[in-house]
Amino acid sequence: MTVDTDRSPTSGAPAEGRQGADDPDRVAQTERRDGLVTTGAFDVRALITSLPQAIRKLTPRAQARNPVMFVVYLGAVVTTVLATWQPSWFAWAVAAWLWFTVVFANLAEAVAEGRGRAQADSLRKVKRDSVARRIDDGTITEIAGSDLRIGDLIAVEAGEVIAGDGDVVEGIATVDESAITGESAPVVRESGGDRSAVTGGTVVLSDRIIVKITTAPGETFVDRMIALVEGASRKKTPNEIALDILLTTLTIIFLLAVVAVGPMQQYAGQSPDPIKLIALLVCLIPTTIGALLSSIGIAGMDRLVQRNVLAMSGRAVEAAGDIDTLLMDKTGTITFGNRRATDLLGAPGVTTDELAGVAYRCSLADDTPEGRSIVDLCLDSYGVEPLDATLRDATRSNVHPEFTTVPFTAETRMSGVDRTGSDGRVVEYRKGAADAVARWVTAHGGTVPESVLDEVERVSSGGATPLVVAVRGAVVGDEAAVGDDGVRVLGVIQLSDVVKPGMAERFAQMRAMGIRTVMVTGDNPLTAQAIAAEAGVDDFVAEATPEDKLALIRKEQSGGRLVAMTGDGTNDAPALAQADVGLAMNTGTSAAKEAGNMVDLDSDPTKLIDVVAIGKQLLITRGALTTFSLANDLAKYFAILPALFSVIYPQLDALNIMRLHSAQSAIVSAVVFNALIIVALIPLSLRGVRYRPSSASRLLGRNLLIYGIGGVITPFLGIWVIDLIVRLLPGMG
Ligand SMILES: Nc1ncnc2c1ncn2[C@@H]1O[C@H](COP(=O)(O)OP(=O)(O)OP(=O)(O)O)[C@@H](O)[C@H]1O
Ligand SMILES: [K+]
Ligand SMILES: [Mg+2]
């Protein structure tokens, strides 16, 4: 057991290095920083500090949620009544230890929940009251952050707290998100692209942005994080419900068996003692796993929080343990997502100046990061004469009589501007994915020159994204001479992005875990291939629309496979919602974060390795403790049955292999052991059984061996030792 003695989980202080080298279960080393942090290790003091909370859970209502422990609870009540009615040392000893059993079970849950409370406290600090400057028809009203409604537009400037969750709809800013992510380096949040989501409670460090509110007060990301780490929103997973049903069935069977013992005793001329029968029942029903089941689940979620992953459902965590396929989008997930225009390559007979002029027009109203980077490149490196500010702004906000914006969509994979001249003739400026533009050009009777196709191929093979630029219609003004109404390809814009470091080895690790990694991108096959090779994914799908992404997941799932998806864009949202595990990047859009069932605050897609390990560990821990609990209960037969019957059937004394002192001391010892084993296993239930990547059947065999045999042997030793002490107490015969 790893005992971290230098901090209490309820101290509220975010720990430095919550995971150290002392944690044997650490599956992968991730940089840890300040932030949403607690110790992953178990702290003995937590048992004491969580005691009041455990006692508070003694209400019938709280107990009724757990059928196995509810039987113990009722047993404790009945035994207490009997002990008051006919007091004896034995009766009171059993009553007291039955109450301890119930409290210890509550304690397991309270300790697990307590670990989240410190995180919740530090998150509440993020939820400070802030003032929002709401924009209504151009005027600004100051209102309380708590009065914001979905759809409100607010202006936030450097130094101000963002009052609510939303998407940046105008501007670009650096934002300090450390209160939530623990990452102290500021992040860029900008309109238009996949890095538009901002979280209420974070602070704008530079510039000014306009944010469109996407969540109602009280339902914000931070609110959900608080509910999550406190376990308030925890629902039983299907697996837990199935196990609950099994445990309840066993409890009913044992209840019937014990009820039958009374008449048997009577028949043999011995008057049955209800206290002994209750003790027998409690020892036989699976109290150990019944007591620890919910803390195992809570601890699994908590371990994810320690890795900066927020799981919105326990079901997703369990599914993660069995993932077969991981789908990822490319930009922003495998690459940094900071696609910048880096080069312009003119078609034959087109000068780069002409190309730059058209590229600039194309991107004037394109509010994506790609579009803005093209404008920057054209102005800074190609000396394009900028349009005057009013004209530009009018175009951008699509109110100019002459210019009509054609925004980028994931379906068309093109964007541009239509310009209506004074003679009513329209010129269409377009740029976009090579295949999309080629289709547009062909549809209008044009062709893409061979040399442009060569450039596209060259740019793509290097892992960059080529955008083909084309114009259709008569020339108005000073752009490239296109002659008549025809359509003409002007050249290629090169967009460059960088693969996040360390991808290849992490994907290799996934391969070792039996997970197939597939990159799904809207980009062209050559770029996809180059990036796929660099990142080391097993497979890739290119030119995928949002529907394709969704269909791919459905196809994988229909083959019985469990699928994880990581993504950041609005176009990934349907797929994130469909996947068994939908891990959204925190840098992504609100839509993506809403759709997924997990959010990675570090925006690291390979974090899925940790998520899978934690999911597997959760399943293994639950299996191991269930095995242990059942084996354990079996062994208690040997302590209690001889004690109950040896007076009438002396042969049964042969079963009393522990040579327990007396019937009373045997029963009390069994009940004491039954209670103490719960406390002894709390650390294991919270920390989880050690997990190493290996085949599922090997793991299962190994655990059955350790926890099955351990579960049989431990009670014999434990009850024998406890009996040595208990026999010294009064009333033990
Ligand atoms: N602003 C833009 N204007 C025109 N075309 C664009 C623009 N941005 C991207 N494209 C083109 O559309 C393609 C699809 O872009 P999108 O951002 O939808 O990709 P995606 O499906 O999210 O995949 P990934 O994020 O993995 O690249 C890009 O590969 C590019 O060729
Ligand atoms: K038991
Ligand atoms: Mg994307």
UniProtKB/TrEMBL annotation:
It catalyses: K(+)(out) + ATP + H2O = K(+)(in) + ADP + phosphate + H(+). GO terms for molecular function: ATP binding; ATP hydrolysis activity; magnesium ion binding; P-type potassium transmembrane transporter activity. One of its GO terms (cellular component) is plasma membrane. InterPro entries: ATPase_P-typ_cyto_dom_N (IPR023299), ATPase_P-typ_P_site (IPR018303), ATPase_P-typ_TM_dom_sf (IPR023298), ATPase_P-typ_transduc_dom_A_sf (IPR008250), ATPase_P-type_domA (IPR059000), HAD-like_sf (IPR036412), HAD_sf (IPR023214), P-type_ATPase_bsu_IA (IPR006391). Pfam families: E1-E2_ATPase, Hydrolase. Residues 131-230 form the P-type ATPase A domain. Residues 1-27 are annotated as: Disordered. Mg(2+) binds at residues 568, 572. ATP binds at residues 366, 370, 408-415, 431. It is an enzyme of class 7 (translocase). Belongs to the cation transport ATPase (P-type) (TC 3.A.3) family. Type IA subfamily. HAMAP family: KdpB. The system is composed of three essential subunits: KdpA, KdpB and KdpC. This is Potassium-transporting ATPase ATP-binding subunit.
